[in-house]
Amino acid sequence: MKTSLIRTIPKLSLFIEELGAGVVAYSSNNEIRVNADYIQGFSSDVKKEITEILYHEVEHSWQWFGNGKALMGLIEGIADFARMKAGLSIYDIKDMFQVTTTYSKTQQYKVLARTMFSLSFLVILTFLTGNQAVEYTVTNNAATTPGGMKFANQIGIEYSKQTMSSATEFIWKTFRQASNADRKDVPKVSLYIDSMDGVAYASNNEIHFSANYIQQYTGNVKTEFTGVIYHEMAHVWQWNGNGQPTPGGLIEGIADFVRLKAGYAPSHWVKPGQGDRWDHGYDVTAYFLDYCEGLRSGFVAELNKKMKTGYSGNYFVELLGKTVDQLWSDYKAKYKTN
Q: Which Pfam families has this protein been placed in (predicted)?
């Protein structure tokens, strides 16, 4: 086998974490995270189930993603195909020929995996998955600068595209957007490495990342880059109140909530409970939203869904039964911070 056909992965890490209800596992940037809550609640042979999950998620680590253009349903189907070929998923043969117009996410993956046995059905079932294809492009406009060269040497275009694709899938899961109808219509996301001040910003499905910041960053720049991309990709996909007055701190807080849940919260963030107000934004609001998520699983997803058509401070009352100020007071009291 030609080594050029194999992805370069020097290290693969597994984390067992509390990920909340509705999540089993996910892989991102050579890291696999399995939900401890799912393990606890699984009533059958948990060792066998974990083995099956790991075959699926490790496949994600090694498979190619069509340079950022492949359908998510196809990617997941190939992962379940590997799981099935390992002899870890046994299905009734009649299930291979059941076709319907609506599939749950799990059904999509299983159907597509079975169909890999029969290529004549592959194209049909790929369309049935209902997942939109998103194109990812990366342009290094600062290629001759120290920061642009550091980006090329330590991060790279291919890794950037993979990170954008992984972030999209994670955000869809976090926002519980199972179908195209739930999501923003974004056919293409472009990343530009620019000579500019600041860190990064997203606008009109474009992300602009500072080559100056990359050059000056003294820690693990690849990990920091990944965390910032998850934040900015959240801006691409999140709803923002449909033009109605919406706290900017909430918008930024949701983006950092995504970064937090993906496991890319940097050490320089504040600690949970710190901050002067709930809509301070960024890390302060992210930890507050995580507290609210603990009160109601899926809170952030439901809040984001409501923000598709507008914004009201009453959304917190509708979802959690308390005003946002009451929730903030409870949050501060929990951590005993002023």
A: BSP
Q: Residue 72 region, left (φ>0) first, then alpha (ψ -120 to 50), else beta?
A: alpha
Whether the model pTM is above 0.70: no
In the block, tokens 């991102």 appear at 28
How is the beta sheet containing 188-194 ordered, strand by strand? 135-140, 188-194, 206-210, 200-203
Distance CA 86, CA 59 (A): 11
Mean pLDDT of the chain: 85
As a whole number of angstroms, the distance between CA 137 and CA 51 comes to 35
Give the architecture-level CATH label for domain 133-237: Orthogonal Bundle (1.10)
Among 180, 160, 164, 178, CA closest to 221: 160
Q: How far is the C-alpha of 62 from the C-alpha of 140, rounded, in Å?
A: 26
- Condensed to tens digits (0 to 9), the pLDDT of residues 56-94 reads 888 888 887 665 555 656 777 787 777 766 766 644 434
The beta-strand segments (E) located in 89-161 are 135-140
Could you tell me if 203 and 234 are in contact, meaning their C-beta atoms sit under 8 angstroms apart?
no
Q: d(Cα 263, Cα 169) in Å, to the nearest integer?
A: 15
Beta bridge pairs of residue 34: 16, 25
What is the C-alpha end-to-end distance of the chain, expressed in Å?
A: 61
204: tokens are 């009109």
119 Cβ contact list (under 8 Å, min separation 6): none
Contact at 8 Å (CB) between 46 and 39? yes
3-state SS assignment for residue 25: strand
Rounded to whole angstroms, how far apart are CA atoms 301 and 159? Answer: 27
- Residue written as token pair 């957007």: 177
